[in-house]
Amino acid sequence: MKILKHLLLFFIISSVFISCFEDLDDNPASIKDLNDFVYRGMNTYYLYKDDVPDLANNRFSDSEYDAFLNSYNSPEALFNHLIYQPETVDRFSWITSNYIELEAFLNGTTQNNGMDFGLVRRQTSSSDIFGYVGYVLPNTSASNQGLQRGDIFYAVNGTPLNDNNYLSLLSNNTYTINLAIYDDNGTPDPDDDTITPNGQSVTLTKSPYTENPIFERNVFQVAGRNVGYLVYNGFTRDFDAQLNDTFGYFSNNNIQDLVLDLRYNPGGSVNTAILLSSMIAGRNGEVFSTEQWNNDIQSQLSVESTVNRFTNNDEGTPLNILNLNRVYVLTTKRSASASELVINCLRPYINVVQIGTSTTGKYQASITLYDSPDFRRQGANPSHLYAMQPLVLKSLNAAGVTDYFEGLDPDILVSENYANMGVLGDENELLLSVALQHIEDNSRLSGQTFEPFEIVGSKSSFTPLQDNMYIEK
Q: In this structure, what CATH number is given to the domain that contains residue 200?
């Protein structure tokens, strides 16, 4: 990804759009000022601008525009009004009143108690849900309390979880999870599974934490082949050097196959996705993806400026490249955006064997817009901390594949077993064991005859950018 290629984009296209800039001062921003920022940013960059009548360039006269801004009592209200089909098409655009928190998140720092978790609907006809612990971060409240992968919780602060309360219950800085035992009754059919409270509880407290997305790496010997294994939980730019070091470790161990575990990876930087894919497959200079912006912006861009290419370096630092012809990728419904980008953009070039369940279905990327004349951080209005993260482009792989609303489907369908989740990195853990078996004898398991449980939320539901893929402007 050419990180700097869009820096001057606003100046190229500014004559196309409405300009209602006001002088910046030290007074608190008015609602009208904030709404003006929201409108200008969405009118300029929003991917689905052409589908939103109120974003048309000739939509308002000056007086009508002022009345329009004044008709919304908050920037959030206007932002939500301008989102195109938020239940189906644009599920991911975001506005924040505190861009300091957003910037910290993009660098990998959040308020975190150390418990990664998923939230699962107990039955298709029920609003009741339960939580499972996916992994525990070291030196956190969760690790200090002895929480482990595979722990099940059915309630928070004594209140059973359901569709309507999980966001509020799990948003607090301190809460108590009430634990339970998951029993599959010895059958593969989830309809007879039970969740029984065990009387135990754990109190967790969040604090600032910078998560290294490289959670686990290992090398296995399988049928005379060296197999690398990487649990990678976020495409975070600040850890790209460590990611490159990990591939140096794989290269030094002469791995011939790679199992890339993205089951809990909600996405992140497009640039990091390009680097990871390049380390796996090489292909320096070939098309990784192309970008499709809204019509106004697309018409001002050259064809080459919308192309992202595989690379052999990270800003001059050589990459450790494996040049593999096959990669195994472990996925769940929690695998999103940049995780899906890697799968989709490697497929035209190498054999990608996807194991697990279908992914989220996010092929669009966003960008951070600040309240400044060119929407960059420098010169941002000092009277407030609002910023937006709207969808601005969608990605297509070299074969033109995009719009995977329902996610990317696995080649081998295997759902995690909540009754026995195993240990990440252990050869007997279900999803990893399926990949290793396929490497050993190229066989497929029969898979499952039932659809896996519905994932309704996860740890990323409580972060500034849920399941997002972003480009650096």
A: 2.30.42.10
